[in-house]
Design goal:
Layout (H helix, E strand, L loop, with lengths): L1 H4 L4 H4 L3 H19 L2 H8 L11 H15 L1 E6 L7 E6 L14 H22 L1
Antiparallel strand pairs: 1-2
Helix pairs in contact: 3-4
Amino acid sequence: MWAGAGLLAAEEVAAPAEAAVLRAWVRLEAVAKADGSGLARTLAVFGVQHTQPPGGRSEGAARVKSHLARTRLKVHDLAPIEGSVAAVALDRAVRAPRLCVFPVDRAGIAALVRERRSSRSRREAQGS
């Protein structure tokens, strides 16, 4: 997972192994999806052909950073629910989305729809 480690800060690499691997993996998937090349191609761009990067981990991390700079992507960690790990890679100019809990029952969904319609109406009234 050295390629994913290039997406981690130093203190995250020192985190418990399972947490660091999971965080690195979801970040790799986020980058692969965002740049549209898929996981296999993204890993190839990062130089993943062996268990260790050619030139060592620092060269692997440099490849990851170079790819992010070239594609203008920034990886944002998301925390959908406690104990879960998620990430999204977006253009550097785009802020990470605010996550919210989607209701699972009919009454909750109806309340959410009403709230969104009301918010939209208020914004439209302010804009006119």
